[in-house]
Write a structure and sequence with these properties.
heterodimer; A: about 550 residues; mainly alpha; 2 strands; globular; B: about 675 residues; two-stranded antiparallel sheet
Chain lengths: ~550, ~675
């Protein structure tokens, strides 16, 4: 099965490398082949999915889906059974409290129907996960390519970490089971901890500990939330698969939890996610981790790992806790997102280390993502997912390019660099291109996500949208300022530069050009990607639709 | 014809796009010094297509696709019978592709040509073609030759798409697209720090305007549920019933966008700096075409703007302030290109003054918009001519453009001089030349405002400003001309061999000069342009076409006065300017330093934002991280507190055990009792 193999392939390769050892040449080739293979598998899943979509659209009669989340590809196996569920339980309290005893003692007495409560190994994929899988696979290939020369010592271990990290990220995007999602979500921390702590910069250990402890502290609270959620669902006896996200979501759509429960769960669950995104004011670990991480680490951290936070909101909070999200989440998280947009942009403006600048820009860009998500309408959430993809592409590419500059000059300080366009013309062309994409220039990808996020939020709350839009102005400001200082003007190189400084080479081009091509494609013709996203967003949006008949007629009028 | 239309339409922007991609891919390796060939060829194709389009429009005004939905709103209210009888307007559309579709937001990339677009297309393609021919001479030998023509062609593509857009969002996409090309071309000589800074400034200041534009589009979408021009204009009556206040907000937001792109006060600060780019770029982008996009956008949105007199008066007011301020600044500049840049800003102000006058009465709407668009049209030719002339001077003077360092070039550069003279005459509003006719129409539109419409005093003030500005225009144009071409012959030392430019450069000058001289006379008083433009789907067709002979005489007198004063001060009595300068030192300094607007921007916007940015990083470093470190230290603090409990003394442990036992027993007793 493709879904399983996409996780297993990098894991197996990592195990193989660990067992065989082997030097740098072998390790990097194995890594390159594995990541390329993974990319192919992800494309296979995408093709599989699109054939399903086509089939559905030609068949015409879609099966009625009442869950806000419905993976179109599934692979579920029962892992173990955890006791039984009384389906016809009159007193749900007792059912759970005494569950274990009842099972053991009164097996014969009770005639109520009992279904085993299953813990599953539930993988799935819908359009959103496929996009994220493909993005992960592409960025990991780029990460391997960019580390080709720059990682010299302990290369085998490096690539093992990279592959394990890839498996973790991919796993999180195909997991449709709460426990499985959480396991993968946390699992990514470990390889990244080593990537930062071993192959990072001068302050690497401090950065690695800080990042690890901080994100772990948040996710532990998320774990508490998850456990509470599962127990609550079991207590209410709503579903026999209390770990399956789609099943919980559909069960809770029919029998919503009380408001207090929802708010409490939202607070607990979001704790890990807001840190991961990161939303203001939980962002301070990010610039530090980025500056210290090796290029490949930064690319994957910014490109994929931060998206796990957004993905968590989208997959777990939005579909499962609609009342709390609409009533409590919107004011809280949208405000944090808006502040994050402006704050991150201002932070970026003050930086002189390019990597730190890009890190702060991530805070700003993910603010757009969260802003769109908490617009809770089709445009906003579609824009948010689009922004996840776009930020992965453009920021990933930015980190790649910054890494290339660093490889050449061993500095990222804008005060020591200047006029690099004279020395590195082709690299500068790529840099200008990606900066413009990141600044949201129409025709490139960034615009699509920002536009949809902002327009969605404008419908929900124009003030948030207007404040958020200032981030677009500031975005152009700090990115073009970076270009002006680092790449334009008279050539300035650090005094310690020795050896010939060569322009971007074929390997580096290979790592960044595919990302640029995708940026252009999404910018010029975003419809295919948007179609994929919107199809899956619809279920969630339906939860938040507060339509009057008149509005409904209006919507129908537009569909025509 | 009908089968040909889609191909033709796509070819107009398509040819430059193909050329651009081609040059970008193969320019450096293959084309090198011949990189202009694809660009010029593509622009020739575009010009031919645009011309053909225009001719079909002229020939059969109502033969194309009918579009009855685009009648003007005021007439529906005022004259319902007449509106129904209106003839369908010529409109050609070409389907493109779905750019983005979500539940409520559908954006298609379709092309649409009505008469306003067709006129814009003709201007854009023709001027671009001439400038590209000129540039092939001007940029000869530059290491970035291919890059220049790639960006140049990309600009023409974006500009054509901007005017071909049939909805606000597509317009915005290419609105930013032209901004990108402007950024790339201003920063063309990126090694120069001033060029890099100017490019960034242009982009960021434009972004401030775009911020308003995009919010305006959001509001349009929220209000009308569509961003398509025709549908928006259709739904105006129903929105007018439910939510009439929204129009002012929408229009002001849109106008903010126009202020950025069309360099209106206070967002005009980027345009003079944009002169750091190569001169052909200044001619094409920063004088003839791109900066007029704001005017076009407001003209295109006329049905929205006429719903909000407040917004229209803001448009007129900002236009007047800009026109006057820029003209005053132009008086004292020594950089020839900067004089022209401020003059561009000032002339754009004129156009906005006219656009705002559309609120005077529904009958005057078409006339006012026509005046603005006609001025845009004539201005494109004579301002491009003047810039190219300045470039020719620069070329010959070894890139020196400071007018204090050369003079009397009339013998060395006779062709440049004669064409520049015609350009100056047209700009100054010399009777019978093109600038005269278009400026006169603007004055007439403002004059109508002083007679009726309820804002007579306001328009009186505006008219006075306009007349004063017209005088200043005549003066500074001839100040520049006289300082450059008349007087004793002097060259800067950088000019090794002052010479007339090559025919590739002078030929476009002559063609543009020809246009500057005749185009106004042919199209203005004959009413050809006005009739054609009135066919636009954004304009009511029926309206007054007032004339005013006294005003015409007044503008002729103004021209004569300005011309005479400049002649006296800079030719007959060369000591006067210096005396005036010392006599009016504070005023002179104010004008020379551009009213300190750049400094104002620095102190009111740039520095506060930078300080805020610094505050943010400090906030991060001390407050947030401080709190974090505090939270992080809690576990170890707890550890420190409880550590003494495990000090290894058995008696302590025994006491604790006893305590636990007692508590347990109490609990047990309570349980039994309960």
């Amino acid at each position: 099965m493709l879904l399983l193999s996409i996780i297993l392939l990098p894991l197996l390769a990592a195990v193989l490398l660990a067992l065989l050892g082997g030097g740098r040449p072998l390790a990097r080739w194995v890594a390159l082949l594995t990541t390329t293979g993974t990319l192919l598998i992800s494309l296979g899943i995408a093709a599989n999915l699109s054939s399903i979509r086509e089939h559905k659209s030609t068949a015409g009669n879609e099966r009625v889906i009442n869950s806000p989340i419905q993976p179109k590809l599934e692979w579920r196996r029962t892992w173990m059974t955890l006791g039984q569920l009384n389906v016809v339980s009159i007193q749900p309290k007792e059912a759970v409290v005494n569950e274990a005893d009842q099972v053991g003692l009164e097996m014969g007495d009770l005639i109520q129907q009992r279904i085993p409560i299953r813990l599953e190994f539930y993988l799935g994929a819908d359009g959103i996960s496929v996009l994220m899988l493909t993005l992960t696979a592409i960025l990991t290939v780029s990460a391997v390519l960019i580390s080709w020369e720059s990682i010299q010592d302990r290369a085998t271990e490096f690539y093992i970490c990279l592959l394990v990290l890839e498996a973790g990220m991919l796993g999180a995007f195909v997991a449709f089971d709460l426990i499985l999602f959480y396991v993968f979500f946390e699992f990514t921390l470990i390889p990244l901890f080593f990537l930062v702590g071993i192959w990072g910069g001068s302050q690497r250990q401090f950065a690695a500990y800080r990042f690890f402890i901080y994100t772990l502290a948040g996710s532990v609270i998320t774990l508490v939330g998850l456990v509470a959620l599962v127990l609550k669902v079991m207590q209410e006896g709503l579903t026999a698969t209390p770990f399956s996200i789609p099943d919980i979501a559909s069960a809770l759509t029919e029998h919503p939890l009380s408001d207090q429960w929802q708010i409490g769960l939202l607070l607990a669950l979001s704790a890990g996610f807001v840190i991961k995104v990161p939303l203001f004011p939980f962002h301070t670990w990010l610039p530090l981790a980025h500056t210290e991480a090796p290029t490949a680490g930064s690319v994957l951290l910014a490109g994929i790992l931060l998206k796990l936070g957004c993905y968590g909101f989208l997959r777990i909070c939005l579909p499962i806790l609609p009342t709390a999200v609409a009533g409590f989440g919107v004011p809280v998280f949208a405000t944090m997102a808006v502040i994050g947009i402006v704050y991150g942009a201002l932070g970026a403006l003050a930086q002189s280390d390019i990597k730190k600048l890009v890190a702060y820009s991530s805070v700003s860009h993910l603010g757009f993502c969260m802003l769109g998500m908490f617009a809770l309408n089709s445009e906003g959430i579609t824009g948010a997912v689009m922004q996840m993809v776009n930020h992965g592409l453009s920021t990933g590419a930015l980190f790649l390019l910054v890494g290339m500059v660093y490889d050449r000059y061993h500095t990222r300080e804008l005060s020591e660099l200047g006029g690099l366009a004279t020395r590195l013309p082709l690299l500068s062309v790529c840099m200008v291109f990606i900066c413009l994409a990141s600044a949201g220039l129409p025709g490139l990808n960034g615009f699509v996500g920002e536009l949809l996020s902002l327009i969605g939020m404008f419908k929900a709350n124009p003030i948030y949208s207007a404040i958020g839009a200032t981030g677009v102005v500031l975005g152009a400001w700090y990115l073009l300022d970076m270009l002006r200082r680092g790449f334009f003007g008279p050539l300035k190189e650090p005094a310690s530069t020795h050896g010939p400084i060569l322009d971007i080479n074929m390997r580096e081009l290979l790592s960044v050009v595919p990302l640029m091509a995708l940026c252009l494609w999404i910018g010029v013709y975003p419809k295919p990607v948007l179609d994929i996203i919107e199809d899956d967003v619809r279920g969630v949006v339906n939860l938040y639709r507060t339509t009057t008949p008149a509005q409904e007629a209006h919507v129908g009028h537009n569909d025509r | 014809m009908s089968e040909l239309t889609p191909a033709l339409l796509w070819l107009i922007p398509g040819a430059p796009l193909i050329a651009s991609v081609f040059i970008a891919c193969f320019g450096k390796a293959l084309l090198r010094g011949r990189s202009h060939v694809p660009c010029v060829a593509a622009l020739a194709v575009s010009t031919a297509c645009a011309g053909f389009m225009m001719l079909t429009f002229l020939a059969m005004p109502s033969s194309l696709k009918q579009d009855t939905s685009l009648l003007n709103r005021e007439q529906i209210q005022d004259l319902p019978v007449e509106a129904e009888q209106q003839e369908p307007k010529p409109l050609a559309t070409t389907p493109g592709y779905d750019w983005s579709v979500t539940e409520n937001l559908r954006v298609r990339l379709d092309l649409q040509v009505d008469s306003m677009t067709a006129l814009m297309l003709c201007t854009i393609t023709l001027v671009s073609l001439l400038v590209s021919i000129y540039a092939s001479g001007y940029m000869h030998g530059d290491p970035g030759y291919p890059r220049f023509f790639a960006a140049f062609a990309l600009f023409v593509f974006s500009m054509c798409m901007l005017v071909l857009a049939d909805n606000y969002l597509t317009m915005f996409v290419f609105w930013e697209g032209v901004g990108l090309c402007s950024y790339l071309l201003i920063g063309f000589w990126f090694q120069k720090p001033s060029a890099a800074a100017a490019a960034r400034k242009a982009f960021v200041v434009n972004r401030i305007g775009d911020f308003g534009f995009i919010l305006g589009i959001f509001l349009i979408w929220k209000t009308f549920d569509t961003v398509k021009f025709s549908e928006v204009f259709d739904r105006i009556p129903s929105v007018l019933e439910t939510n009439p206040e929204v129009f002012t907000t929408i229009c002001l937001l849109l106008f903010l966008g126009a202020m950025g792109k069309s360099a209106q006060f206070p967002l005009h600060v980027w345009l003079p700096d944009a002169m750091e780019g190569p001169t052909p770029v200044s001619a094409l982008i920063h004088a003839a075409t791109m900066v007029t996009a704001g005017v076009y956008m407001v003209a295109r949105s006329t049905p929205l703007f006429v719903m909000s007199p407040v917004a229209q008066m803001v448009v007129t007011g900002i236009g007047a302030i800009t026109a006057l301020l820029a003209a005053l600044t132009a008086l004292t500049q020594y950089d020839l290109k900067r004089v022209l840049a401020y003059s561009t800003v000032s002339q754009l102000g004129f156009m906005f003054m006219a656009l705002g006058a559309a609120c005077v009465s529904p009958k005057l709407t078409t006339f006012a918009v026509t005046a603005a668009m006609f001025h845009l049209f004539t201005h494109a030719f004579f301002k491009a001519l003047l810039f190219l002339g300045a470039g020719s001077v620069m070329h010959s003077m070894g890139d020196v453009i400071d007018m204090r360092r050369f003079s009397g070039l009339r013998h060395v550069m006779p062709h440049t001089r004669i064409t520049f003279l015609f350009g100056s005459l047209a700009l100054a509003g010399c009777p019978l030349l093109s600038g005269f006719w278009s400026k006169d129409e603007i004055l007439v539109a403002l004059f109508e405002g002083t007679k009726a419409g309820g804002h007579e005093t306001f328009f009186m003030a505006i008219l006075v400003v306009a007349v004063v500005t017209a005088f200043l225009t005549a003066f500074y144009s001839f100040r520049a001309y006289n300082m450059t071409f008349l007087g004793e012959e002097r060259f800067p030392e950088e000019a090794h061999h002052p010479h007339e430019s090559s025919p590739t450069m002078t030929l476009p000058l002559f063609i543009l000069a020809g246009f500057s001289v005749v185009i106004g006379l042919f199209l203005g008083p004959t009413g050809v342009y006005a009739r054609q433009l009135a066919q636009s789907t954004s304009l009511p067709e029926h309206g007054d076409h007032p004339h005013s002979v006294p005003l015409m005489a007044l503008s002729a007198a103004i021209f004569a006065a300005g011309y005479g004063l400049a002649r006296w001060m800079y030719v007959k009595a060369p000591g006067v300017p210096a005396k005036l300068e010392s006599g009016l030192k504070p005023l002179h300094r104010l004008s020379l330093n551009k009213f300190y607007l750049d400094e104002l921007f620095t102190y009111l916007l740039v520095i506060p934002v930078k300080v805020l940015a610094l505050v943010c990083t400090l906030f991060d470093k001390y407050l947030i991280d401080g709190l974090l470190n505090f939270v992080g230290s809690i576990p170890s603090m707890i550890g420190r507190i409880v550590r003494p409990m495990q000090n290894g003394l058995v008696s302590n442990y025994a006491w604790v055990m006893l305590l636990g036992l007692v508590l347990f027993l109490i609990q047990m007793l309570r349980a039994f009792a309960g």
